[in-house]
Design brief:
Length: 167
């Protein structure tokens, strides 16, 4: 699905990191809250700053942002994706603001991450899908590998589905 008119995706820069943090938190608190208990949302959505994403970029992680452009209004970042290679596994994550869900934004962001993975020689891409995102990833060609838990930065664990897509 192509994103709605007026939405475009580009490579993120260091200057985008504070907005990336805001989108990430909005997605967790709006979309994630539909399937996880409050304690998981509190841990997963713990306050964060752009410094987290600046450090990730410094360590080679690539980020992409979806921007909504509407005449007469300030451009707004409405979604993010990332690509990184961890221990030989090509990985991605997609987060979209709750009010921008189901508009093709996530699929466009996924395409950007997949393209980065392919540039780095990936034949597949993996994700630890939150329970809120499993249907999205399945609709975009991912297959379930198994169920388990993802360890959050706080140390708390949250249920997830391990998924992979052949590129």
């Amino acid at each position: 699905m192509a994103p709605a008119k007026g939405i475009f995706v580009r490579h993120a820069t260091i200057d985008d990191c504070d907005a990336i943090a805001e989108v990430h938190l909005d997605s967790i608190r709006s979309l994630g809250a539909a399937v996880y208990d409050a304690d998981v949302i509190d841990a997963w959505g713990a306050p964060r700053s752009g410094d987290t994403y600046r450090r990730a970029m410094d360590n080679g992680e690539e980020f992409f942002i979806a921007i909504a452009h509407e005449a007469g209004k300030e451009d707004c970042i409405i979604g993010i994706s990332s690509y990184r290679c961890d221990a030989g596994k090509h990985r991605t994550a997609i987060y979209v603001r709750g009010d921008a869900a189901r508009m093709g934004v996530g699929s466009a962001l996924l395409a950007a991450a997949e393209s980065a993975a392919q540039r780095h020689g990936a034949s597949s891409i993996d994700v630890d899908a939150s329970l809120a995102s499993v249907a999205f990833y399945k609709a975009n060609g991912f297959q379930e590998l198994g169920r388990g838990e993802h360890k959050l930065a706080t140390g708390q664990r949250m249920a997830c589905i391990f998924m992979r897509k052949q590129l």
